[in-house]
Amino acid sequence: MEQLTLFVGLLRLTYQS
């Protein structure tokens, strides 16, 4: 279930940009 955390992190990073 670590991939989900990675996905959320990437999504949040893209959202912040």
TrEMBL record:
The source's superkingdom equals Eukaryota
Could you tell me what this protein is called? Uncharacterized protein
Higher taxonomy: Eukaryota, Viridiplantae, Streptophyta, Embryophyta, Tracheophyta
